[in-house]
Amino acid sequence: MKVWGLTGQLGTGKSTATEYLGTLGYPSVNLEDLFRRSINKDTDDGREGFTRIYKIFGNEVLNSLGQLDPRKLGQKLMLNPEDRKRIEEAIDPLVNDLVEKKRIEWKEQGVELGFVEGARVFESGMDKNLRGVVAIEADFNKRVKRIAKRDHMGENEVKMMFQMQDNAVISRLSKVKWKNDGSIPALKKQIDAFVDEQLAAE
């Protein structure tokens, strides 16, 4: 079984790619989804993560029900680099453990090719446990418009978010690159070629 990372900056089309791979029968797991799962105190997978975040910030990131408030936690992640680092150092190991559980599950199911999708594949250290990483790249202005439309945000706000991602690391470390400046069929063609190559190789 081969497990590849799939990364790229916001608005490059990671979700579009994983959705298409799913229709071909190749599963994926999303790092952002696993992050949320790893800090949900109402689940076995999330209690430890919740405790770690609470020890760092206390009630600052809780709502009136004592649950983690996504908006407050998001502000810590987006607005304060030092807070972001503390959160990531606390939670990344738990997310990586969840990915490993998924890898074992896929192997038991006889999956030939699977994907770990997220913007922080390298930053989290996940890339060290993967066959390689595919980066999806797209024109800056096209990415801004995609995210602004998808998340109902102003373009200036989106541009500020983009400043927090280091594309140089993604571009330098990724073994494979898919370009997503054109049509969806053009992206799918690149994906098809990649899948055929992986299945043909040992």
Give an account of the 3D structure.
With 202 residues, this protein is α/β, with parallel strands linked by helices. The protein has a domain at 2-27 and 111-197: P-loop containing nucleotide triphosphate hydrolases (Rossmann fold, 3-Layer(aba) Sandwich), CATH 3.40.50.300. 55% of the residues lie in helices and 12% in strands. The protein has nine helices and five strands, in the order βαβααααββαααβα. A five-stranded parallel β-sheet has the order 2-3-1-4-5, with helices on both faces. It starts with a strand and ends with a helix. The mean pLDDT is 89.
Give the gist of this structure.
This protein is an alpha/beta fold and 202 residues long. It has nine helices and five strands, in the order E-H-E-H-H-H-H-E-E-H-H-H-E-H. The chain has a domain at 2-27 and 111-197: P-loop containing nucleotide triphosphate hydrolases (Rossmann fold).
In terms of topology, how is this protein built?
Blueprint: E1 2-7, H1 14-23, E2 28-30, H2 31-38, H3 47-57, H4 70-79, H5 81-109, E3 113-117, E4 132-137, H6 140-151, H7 155-162, H8 167-173, E5 176-179, H9 184-200
Parallel strand pairs: 1-3, 1-4, 2-3, 4-5
Helix pairs in contact: 1-9, 2-5, 3-5, 4-5, 6-7
